[in-house]
Amino acid sequence: MNIEDRKKELTPEENHVLFNGGTEAPFTGELLNEHRVGMFSCKVCGTPLFASDTKFESGSGWPSFDQALPGATENIEDNSLGMLRTEVRCATCHAHLGHVFDDGPATTGKRYCMNSICMEFKEEEK
Ligand SMILES: [Zn+2]
User: Which domain holds residue 37?
Assistant: First the structure.
């Protein structure tokens, strides 16, 4: 998969969030209220990132998960906007996905705050 070719297929908004570290407006993402059983994957390279059973309602307005699939994401220190945050990227193609915070549910204590626009959902086949 050639990332430069994939970029041309994506919308300007998708490119902005995925490759410039942008953030979609809260409560706008189409995956925010996705409750089917399945897999959330990277919109650029298709790598599975989050299983539906790790998704929870955080109230933030962005799809939230308490853990990523092992090895699927990479964490990068982010000092932008005057805050120390941990950026989450796709470990395969390094596209920006969102941030991870330490105020998640008791299961893991983590809150992966993801941009819906950076992911695709595929329902598990019955
Ligand atoms: Zn990717």
Answer: 3-123
- As a whole number of angstroms, the distance between CA 35 and CA 53 comes to 9
Does the global pTM surpass 0.90? yes
Q: How far is the CA of 25 from the centre of ligand 1 (A)?
A: 21
How far, CA to CA in Å, does 95 sit from each of 17, 86, 91? 9, 14, 8
Number of domains, the chain: 1
Q: What is the CATH number of the domain that holds 72?
A: 2.170.150.20
Would residue 113 show up in a list of annotated catalytic residues for this protein? yes
- Which phi and psi (to 5°) does residue 71 adopt? 80, 0
pLDDT at 93: 97
